[in-house]
# Entry
Amino acid sequence: MENNFAVEKSRMIKEQLRGRGIKDERIIQAFRDTPRHLFVPQGYRNRAYADRPLPIGDGQTISQPYIVAFMTELLELAGDERVLEIGTGSGFQTAILARIVDEVFTVERNGDLQARGESVIKSLGIDNVHYSVHDGTVGWKRYAPYERILGTGGVPEVPSSLLDQLDEDGLIVIPVGSKRQQRLYKVKKRGQKVTYSKGVYCSFVPLVGSEGW
Ligand code: SAH
# Structure
């Protein structure tokens, strides 16, 4: 079984990541080092490396592998950042980020989901992640500012709390749009100046909260 997973993982990296233009070797290596099947519920393990999102309970999903890699690339990481992630979900994206950057601060509104993700991440020996269960659309003020912020669910507009908690030289990647369809926004702060660039269309579950849906 583990053997099969290794083969499927290599194929996923080759076809879904490299094949679609993911070039950053740190991202590729993070995927190599992270057993995605441990982050999906037992019943879906045989599809863990498939080119699609999968249910993880509570109506939520683990994002498609390519999307995780693509969003990580959009974050333009140097490696020394502190990253705030809104929506831990399965914890897979959290683990990928943690392998690349200094520290990850991950927020999830569903305590059961986060507890599951946290235990998988810790079982892999990853110890540079801070966890909190609260409405992440208001960010996580205590450890702000963050050099990077990643939203793993959609919002109607970029939450002002996230802009406030972003470093003066920082970058936010978050899906913005309607509940059904969004565009991946890249929001850059340079001093007091904020610029928005709208990227590809996508479809994420909503972030539900005071500055979300
Ligand atoms: N990257 C994750 C995707 C999880 S889906 C993965 O690949 O597994 C988005 C997650 O955001 C869900 O787990 C959902 O419960 C969570 N979420 C929704 N609204 C939230 C909020 N206001 N604050 C924090 N998390 C939220």
